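User: S1-C subfamily serine protease, Rudaeicoccus suwonensis:
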Amino acid sequence: MRSRLIITGAAIAAIAIGPAGAVAADHALNTADSVSVAAPTTVTPGSASGNGSSGSQPYGCGYGSGSSGSSGSSGSGGSYGTVPGASTGSAVISGTPVKSQPGVVMVDTVLPGGEGAGTGMVLSSNGIILTNYHVVESSTSIRVTDANGKTYTATVIGHDETHDIAVLKLSGASGMTTAKLDTAAASLGEAVTAVGQGGGQGTLYKTSGAITGTGKQITASDESSTTDSETLYGLLQTNAQIVPGYSGGPLLNSAGEVVGMDTAASSSSPISGYAIPISSALKVANLIESGTRTATVHIGARAAIGVEISDSSSSGGSYYGGSQASGALVEGTVSGSAAAAAGITAGSTITAVGGQTISGVSQLSSIINDYYPGQRVSVSWIDSTGQSHTATLTLGASSEN
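Assistant: Predicted structure for S1-C subfamily serine protease:
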């Protein structure tokens, strides 16, 4: 799961709500000019008492009566911590509430470790929704709420992780109001308004500003692994006060037309927000809607081997004859999966997939993401006794988006 937590500088503005007592933060961003950026916040609902100490991350969050800050102790109010990583501060919400915004929906997800929240835009009356991929990544179910308060279940029909785009389809939707789009290039100084589910509170908020930059580049990397990164190009920059939860929401011009999709925001003062130009987002969305696969566009379900894994080096690894195996350490297998059928067991280390040497979890995930369910791939591993194996596996469908 790419649960994004703001460190310093700019950050992906979505929320991930984790299980009680565990705040994870594994996706940070850095701009090309070394200004740090980051992303959706994993926060903790749950029973807690006492005033929580400040977490190590800005926008440290708690939810309900949960923890505050990424490393902070439990907050008595459990509200979202203020910047940076406050103990019991009020929700990280920027802007003023709006009853509804035509063509804008709230996106709420269930994740393996909790829940998440973000925003989306309606592209067609029958329920085609545009959002950031990081809003729905690793989710097991998605619920979307429209401007009238009606809720729908949603499926991911395709995504582009490289460009942080996902397209959803709502079940049983019809007659929905679509977002008004302006695909012309936004201009420096142009007045804009960002709209989104600020703080993941189940309410839309809006915050105004202006375009302060165009063609911006940021590089996203997992906080736990700075070598695993992705870069977004050509972004709009704004001084609108975008915060977690706005991800996937619209950046509107003075005519109420969408010029960009809210994607990142700084935690430093003054805040700088980042948005994917709507023209760029639509190019990817159109490929997804047409079912066109590319080097970056993935249609339908993701493939899966059927293992629970961690980096062998970070987990202590498995030792064979005094040496440590490099790769992805298997902590368990899914019953009935390709991995289980091949004889891969807990304690094994996956060392190669499709002829490519595996150095860790992120590389394994990246390689598997290039495949589709039903395809066959060669997998090599070392079992817990130190024996080497290679088998050809038929990939299954992942239960996570």
